[in-house]
Amino acid sequence: MIFNRLSDSLRLRKLHPGFGRAFDFLKRKDLPKLENGTYELDGKRVYVIVQEYNGRGRKKSRIEAHLRYIDIQYVISGNEVIGFRDFSECTPDSDGWNKEKDICFSDDAADFWIPVPPGSFAIFYPEEDGHAPMAGKGKVRKVVVKILEDIR
Length: 152
Known about the structure:
By secondary structure, this protein is mostly beta strands. The chain has a single domain, classed as Jelly Rolls (Sandwich). It contains 1 helix and 10 strands. The strands form 2 sheets. Strands 1, 2, 3, 5, 7, 8, 9 and 10 form an 8-stranded antiparallel beta sheet that branches. Strands 4-6 form a two-stranded antiparallel sheet. A hairpin with a 3-residue loop joins strand 2 and strand 3 (46-54).
């Protein structure tokens, strides 16, 4: 997991070939005005989900992990909080891995909670970074960039 502010993202571009495209999108001037929905940046290799929701609070947010995609969760506005737990220490729920949707949930508790203020992002890597998003309170506007880990 990586936590940082968008203004400090330049040095992170070299960590993955999809990060440059992701951070360029997140720096768009019109980002706060984009409609909720999915936007493809490089087909299914790099795409974006723009969403607005009411936070669920810590008790209702579940740990999730992915097998194929890196998440960059960037907060435009609101008070987002995301829980974290190493997914190797989690017990998958009875549904197990949904490979089609690239997700697995766990009912285990997060080890710690990270406030993600507007202008900040958290990066979660496949298989290892269990995360419980949407744990803030009130209205949150956020962008989740999904980046295929194995881009060639």
